[in-house]
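[job 4471] stage=fold_predict status=RUNNING
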Amino acid sequence: MGIYVGGTKTSNKPFTYRAEYDGDDNIVYEAWSLPGTAEAAASWQICQHTFVKNNLTAIKWADGSGEFSFKWTKRKNGTYTYS
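[job 4471] inference complete, writing structure tokens
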């Protein structure tokens, strides 16, 4: 296991993981980064989940990118477009 950024292996360490849930316990946002990364650092990979009647219907990435270049603290304030 490792973390790859732009096809280059950057670490053998496991990911740090964050998740935010809605009122129905569905995961709305998920994020991964290197251990020790501050939540306000632009070093997170973030996705948004869309649910219809508690069924997952879409997974969209911050600014349409799987890069580790986003801030967990900015995931839902309109800073990123999810596609």
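[job 4471] summary: The first strand starts at residue 3 and ends at 5.
[job 4471] exit 0
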